[in-house]
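Onboarding guide, step 5: your first structure request.
Type a short instruction followed by the sequence, for example:

Predict the 3D structure of this protein.
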Amino acid sequence: MSLMDLLVWLTGAGSLMTISWLAEYFDWFINMEAKQKKLVFFGIAVGITLASMLVINFVPVGIIEMLSPYFTAVIALFVMVFISDSFHAVTKK
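The system replies with structure tokens like these:
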């Protein structure tokens, strides 16, 4: 996945999936009432979607291409950490 692919993904369902996954790590979100969660979820989704669209439309492609190697390194690290966490969760049981 390239940086541009991620940005495009975040303009759609990707923002919802990302928020849904990340929000469950924050006690302030977990402890909200259902109505509050919906509003906060919607607000964050709009923010991520619009921010992604702004980057796609207004950041020169050359800058996005320049950042791509760093993005690839961060994504690889993320995958390794996620696999490591999953491995530890499975082997604990």
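Each response can be followed by summary notes, for example: Residues 3-92 form one domain.
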